[in-house]
């Protein structure tokens, strides 16, 4: 088993600006009902492009175990 970093966006801090969604090369981020961004961790590759464009710097990266 190995671990990979995956994006995590705290919904209570997100302003739903969409910058992260536009920056994501794997289209792993979407805006939920105009309220906050959510990450599809199955598609996230942990490239950190989303965190570089977040205007309020709230995007974190957490380790997720892969069974490969």
Architecture overview:
The protein is α+β, with helices and mostly antiparallel strands and 68 residues long. It has a single domain (2-66), classed as Alpha-Beta Plaits. It has helices at 19-23, 49-53; strands at 2-8, 29-32, 36-39, 60-66. The termini are close together.
List the helices and strands and how they pair.
Blueprint: E1 2-8, H1 19-23, E2 29-32, E3 36-39, H2 49-53, E4 60-66
Antiparallel strand pairs: 1-4, 2-3
Mean pLDDT: 93
Our count of domains comes out at 1
Sheet of most strands: 2 strands, antiparallel
At the fold tier of CATH, the topology name is Alpha-Beta Plaits
Q: Name the structural class.
A: alpha+beta
- The level 1 CATH classification is Alpha Beta
Distance between the termini: 6 Å
Helix content: 10-25%
**Cα shape:** globular
Instruction: Supply Rg.
Output: 12 Å
Spans with pLDDT under 50 lasting ≥5 residues? Answer: none
Order of helices and strands: EHEEHE
How much strand? 25-35%
Quickly give the CATH architecture.
2-Layer Sandwich
The number of helical runs is 2
Main sheet strand line-up: 1-4
Number of strands: 4
In short:
The chain is about 15% helix and about 30% strand.
List keywords for this structure.
two-stranded antiparallel sheet, 2 helices, two-stranded antiparallel ribbon, single chain, 68 residues, alpha+beta, globular, Alpha-Beta Plaits
């Amino acid at each position: 088993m190995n671990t990979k970093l995956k994006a995590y966006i705290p919904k209570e801090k997100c302003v739903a600006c969409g910058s992260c969604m536009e920056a994501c090369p794997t289209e792993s981020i979407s805006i939920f009902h105009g309220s906050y961004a959510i990450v599809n961790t199955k598609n996230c590759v942990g490239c950190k492009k989303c965190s570089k464009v977040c205007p309020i710097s709230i995007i974190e990266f957490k380790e997720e175990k892969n069974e490969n």
